[in-house]
Design goal:
Layout (H helix, E strand, L loop, with lengths): L1 H15 L4 H7 L2 E5 L5 H11 L5 E5 L2
Parallel strand pairs: 1-2
């Protein structure tokens, strides 16, 4: 499994000419939101509202 993940990451880096995950996300049209972990329920609500959207939303804690 780890070998497959490494291979997929290498393909993304070659395709997007960067190893910066934020640049790759931007090029793929992925929206990144940063919130405090305490705001988790707000994010869950937001995700459920965006479920029918064609956009991809990824949440990470700073």
């Amino acid at each position: 499994m780890a070998g497959w993940i490494k291979h997929e990451v290498q393909k993304l880096v070659r395709k997007h000419c960067t190893n910066n995950p934020f640049e790759i996300a931007s090029q793929k049209g992925i929206v990144l939101l940063f919130e405090q972990l305490a705001e988790f329920m707000v994010i869950i609500t937001l995700l459920s509202e965006l479920k029918s959207s064609t956009s991809t939303l990824i949440w990470t804690s700073p």
